[in-house]
């Protein structure tokens, strides 16, 4: 199996999380915690995205439940159009600015051309699904220690 393109080897680290849009974290979390045994890694409000998120751990894999925090949240529109379900895939990157520049240079359509504040101290940017075979993708840079 062929690996990532040479230009991405120092950019993409791996899958950070899978995000699932839900109407209500409170009503949904029981299935994931009690039903599947996933451990909560904390709930947080992300003002820039107007969402509440609950990160759940399945071993070393992370699942993020995302609910709208206001009527003008992007998740509100997603839920009205598509209903609950997988919202996006998030890729962990070493350097968000380098990843964005790499994608811009290749004419990949971006929703965010600059870093945004994400949950748990991360910096994020979204890649438009028109450039990714219909899949909304998020780039995530972990906080620097």
Keywords:
145 residues, alpha+beta, 2,3-Dihydroxybiphenyl 1,2-Dioxygenase, domain 1, eight-stranded mixed sheet, 8 strands, 21% helix
Assigned CATH architecture: Roll
Summed up, the domain count is 1
CATH structural fold name: 2,3-Dihydroxybiphenyl 1,2-Dioxygenase, domain 1
Q: What integer is the average pLDDT?
A: 92
Number of helices: 3
Order of helices and strands: EHEEEHEHEEE
Could you describe the largest sheet, including whether it forms a barrel?
Answer: 8 strands, mixed
The global form is globular
- What share of the residues does DSSP label as strand, in percent? 35-45%
**What structural category characterises the helix and strand content?**
alpha+beta
Taking all Cα atoms into account, the compactness measure Rg is 15 Å
Give the helix proportion (percent range): 10-25%
Query: CATH superfamily, please?
Result: 2,3-Dihydroxybiphenyl 1,2-Dioxygenase, domain 1
> Low-confidence parts lasting 5 or more residues at pLDDT below 50?
none
Write up what this structure looks like.
- It is built from 3 helices and 8 strands, in the order E-H-E-E-E-H-E-H-E-E-E.
- Strand 3 and strand 4 form a beta hairpin.
- By secondary structure, it is α+β, with helices and mostly antiparallel strands.
- The protein has an 8-stranded mixed sheet.
Topology:
Blueprint: E1 12-21, H1 25-35, E2 39-46, E3 51-58, E4 61-68, H2 74-82, E5 85-93, H3 96-105, E6 116-117, E7 123-127, E8 137-141
Parallel strand pairs: 1-4, 5-8
Antiparallel strand pairs: 1-5, 2-3, 3-4, 6-7, 7-8
């Amino acid at each position: 199996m062929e690996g990532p393109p040479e230009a991405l080897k120092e950019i993409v680290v791996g899958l950070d999380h899978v995000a699932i849009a839900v109407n209500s974290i409170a009503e949904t979390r029981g299935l994931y915690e009690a039903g599947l045994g996933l451990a909560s890694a904390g709930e947080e409000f992300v003002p820039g995205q107007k969402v509440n998120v609950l990160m759940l751990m399945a071993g070393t894999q992370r699942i993020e439940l995302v609910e709208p925090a206001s009527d003008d949240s992007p998740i509100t529109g997603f839920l009205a159009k598509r209903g609950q379900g997988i919202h996006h895939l998030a890729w962990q990157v070493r350097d968000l600015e380098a990843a964005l520049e790499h994608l811009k240079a290749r004419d990949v359509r971006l929703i965010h051309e600059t870093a945004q504040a994400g949950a748990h101290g991360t910096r994020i940017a979204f890649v438009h699904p028109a450039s990714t075979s219909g899949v909304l993708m998020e780039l995530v840079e972990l906080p620097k220690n």
